[in-house]
Amino acid sequence: MATNLEQLYQQIILDHARERHGSGLLEKTGPGSVGESHQLNPVCGDEITLRTVVDGGTVASLSWDGAGCAISMASASVLTDLMEGLERDEAVRLIDAFREVMRSRGTIPADEEVLGDAAAFSGVSRYPARVKCAMLAWVALEESLLAANS
Amino acid sequence: MAVVSPSVTLLPAEASITNAEALRIRNDFPILGAEVNGRPLVYLDSGATSQNPLSVLEAEQEFYEQRNAAVHRGAHTLAVEATDAYEAARAAVAGFINARPDELVWTSNATEAINLVAYAMSNSSVGRGGAEAERFRVGPGDTIVVTEMEHHANLIPWQELAARTGAELRFLPVDDDGALRLEDAAGVITPATKIVAFTHASNVLGTINPVADLVRLAREVGALTLLDACQSVPHLPVDVKALDVDFLVLSGHKMLGPTGIGALYGRSELLNAMPPFLTGGSMITTVTMERAEYLPAPNRFEAGTQRISQAIALGAAANYLSETGMHRIEAWESELGARLVEGLSAIEGIRVLGPRAGLPRIGLAAFDVAGVHAHDVGQFLDEQGIAVRVGHHCAQPLHRRLGLTATTRASTYLYNTTDEVDFFLEAVGGVRPFFGAR
């Protein structure tokens, strides 16, 4: 199989696309404020509704409901693992860092120390048509954090 | 390799294009020699846009090099030559669908052609066009009928017309195989119906709709008919008089022509009774500061400077298709389409939309791959040089009806070979294993 394709669809992405951590919207039970965001990519129909609970400046929980390609679903799954328990400001910094990599057309490699499993999406940045797929859940989190803040 | 043009002089008189002939035809299409991702391009996306033969590219270039001038204005030699070439192209495209030249209106694309009719009806509904435009008026109590398999281009202009006028938009449903439920048609197409707008061949299902049945039902209640022929005119012989439709729209870039050009066919007496849609220069006779008189069709609907080079290139495209023979193209694509459907249906986890194997369809097959999103299927195929369309193909309601959000679509044209179809089928067979779909 072509190397390019394996670089794009790394095993970690294929695994997360099937396992989908955080999939299934959770009702808020504990303390904190809830933020929710719905994102749609009209080009391909990829869709996500992401709900986050922010408690005392910390991303206390994150859950989502979505339908889409392997890249978009795996990205939401990885995002869930990465963000839960982080300080809100740190979460925002990671979103910015991820966006910078995604928009770089392959020129900025992801720092695995910072982005963890999300670094596996580096290859996506060379496919401009797919960057939105990878970004979908991250934009949803960004918006839901703002909503939870307000 | 030297290209002999026109290729028609070399063609055998078989009832269908053959693989050997398709290989010769490919020489007329420079882009088909391209490589994608280090692999020979396998172009199976002609349903979205077709490729251009040299004769089309040359017609457009020749116009700019030798004849470029505004048409229907000015008396200098270039202006006369440009006008002649432009009107010859109109005659070529009109003749291609057995229409008269004055029954063919140039538009930017098929979408604009549908909007032209919808807005002319809208303008009639507020009194424009006077008494002779009465039959185009719609309002509360009237219905506009489309089908559930329409491209958004033949849905949204009618939604908007209904919203502006208070008319009701109704639709003919499709069954689980994507065929129109004709048994329901009598309840949908009623004496309240003013227009029935429907596609000739579905861009998702490949179904060829029973035009005669729908035209008869519309005629019985005095409704107008509009046929979206974007997926039929490029691929099968289309005769507007035999089909007996009131309006027909076509797209230039889906029939070997350039982008930016399409056309509306309308029966002459209808076009000449309709108020204009776009207004301005070149469509008038007498203008005062208060009002204007309009030219007869087709010029009445061609306001402003027109798409001259594109029209001329589309004329060349129609000539290329005529010389190759539309019956022969239809036969070849029917074979390629059958090969696609049979091959896809034999792959585990693949669900092909539309008519089952053995039933008529154009050279097009949209399919769902169990456990793999269409976008990923498209990416996987692209890596092997195969170009297909992924997504909802501008038909969200149809996808929703079939319980899907996105599908992958392969669509053929006269230049595709059975080897390409087989290569594609083998590649599709590798999709689910690669993604570990269960």
Task: Map the helices and strands.
The complex is a heterodimer of chains A (150) and B (438).
Chain A: H1 3-8, H2 11-19, E1 33-41, E2 46-55, E3 58-67, H3 70-83, H4 88-102, H5 112-115, H6 128-149
Antiparallel strand pairs in A: 1-2, 2-3
Chain B: H1 19-26, E1 35-36, E2 39-40, E3 42-43, H2 54-67, H3 77-96, E4 104-107, H4 110-125, E5 143-147, H5 156-165, E6 168-172, H6 185-188, E7 193-199, H7 211-220, E8 224-228, H8 240-243, E9 247-251, E10 262-266, H9 268-271, E11 284-287, E12 292-294, H10 308-324, H11 326-345, E13 350-352, E14 364-369, H12 374-382, E15 386-387, E16 389-391, H13 396-401, E17 407-411, H14 418-429, H15 431-435
Parallel strand pairs in B: 3-15, 5-6, 5-7, 7-8, 8-9
Antiparallel strand pairs in B: 1-2, 4-10, 9-10, 11-12, 13-14, 14-17, 16-17
Describe the overall structure.
- The complex is a heterodimer of chains A (150) and B (438).
- By secondary structure, chain A is of the alpha+beta class.
- Chain A has one domain (4-149): Alpha-Beta Complex (Sufe protein. Chain: A), CATH 3.90.1010.
- Chain A contains 6 helices and 3 strands; from the N terminus they run ααβββαααα.
- In chain A, strands 1-2-3 form a 3-stranded antiparallel sheet, covered by helices on one side.
- In chain A, a hairpin with a 4-residue loop joins β1 and β2 (46-55).
- In chain A, α3 (70-83) runs parallel beside α6 (128-149) and α4 (88-102) runs antiparallel to α6.
- Chain A starts with a helix and ends with a helix.
- The model of chain A has no long low-confidence stretch (mean pLDDT 92).
- In chain B, α8 links the parallel β8 and β9.
- With 438 residues, chain B is of the alpha/beta class.
- Chain B contains 15 helices and 17 strands.
- Chain B has helices at 19-26, 54-67, 77-96, 110-125, 156-165, 185-188, 211-220, 240-243, 268-271, 308-324, 326-345, 374-382, 396-401, 418-429, 431-435, and strands spanning 35-36, 39-40, 42-43, 104-107, 143-147, 168-172, 193-199, 224-228, 247-251, 262-266, 284-287, 292-294, 350-352, 364-369, 386-387, 389-391, 407-411.
- Chain B is globular, with a radius of gyration of 22 Å.
- Chain B folds into 2 domains: 19-43 and 326-435, Aspartate Aminotransferase, domain 1 (Alpha-Beta Complex), CATH 3.90.1150.10; 62-323, Aspartate Aminotransferase, domain 2 (3-Layer(aba) Sandwich).
- A 7-stranded mixed sheet of chain B has the order 4-10-9-8-7-5-6.
- The model of chain B is unreliable at 1-11 (pLDDT under 50).
- Classes of the chains: A alpha+beta (150), B alpha/beta (438).
